[in-house]
Amino acid sequence: MKNIILASTSTVHGGTYLDYILPTLQEHFKHANNILFIPFARPGGITHDDYTNIVATAFKKINKTVTGLHTYPNPTEAITQAEAIFTGGGNTFVLTNQLYVNNLITPLQNAVKNGTPYLGTSAGSNICGLTIKTTNDMPIVYPPSFNALALMPFNINPHYLDPDTNSKHMGETRETRIKEFHFYNTPPVVGLREGSWLEVKGNQITLMGNLHARIFEYNKTPYEVAPKTNLSQLK
Fold it and tell me: Pfam families, per this entry (predicted)?
């Protein structure tokens, strides 16, 4: 049974890394002592070791240890045997490319589908959609495919931003870009605002947190859904 949390962000304004969601993660990872961390997205070009240390510091608050996937000689085996898995944010293209290069797409899919508790934030959430085509990141590397883990029956847009009516910026809004996506693609897109997350228990997908999410469906007017909304039928 799938046991997944997909958060829009790791850090909310005024907080520290994962603090806002740690009570939820304590329950989510209650049967795991060690969390396997996938650091491949490398936000800001940080080293894998430094990124893992940041994560370890956060999880120490709920008495969990963290080990970076990059330290294992056999990453496939590490994923297969993991008690729990966390994929952090950063650049979605870099993350996806590394998963393909290391032949980890299928092992990661299988582990999560078989019930290994999974946490994703930002890019780590984006890869759980059907494709990574609704990421906000620059394509600084070219992965073999834009197809993602397909653990969700839709795409995700983490860090979703509403238009700022006071801004003089005349460029595209996030909503405009998602509508451009739907000019060439049909899957729904869930716009996850910062501080929100999707909780997946088996086949049930529920919006959690205190904020609404914005839903984009092909050839439909975008609409808002409230926290605790069941999104399982969104396909």
Answer: Peptidase_S51
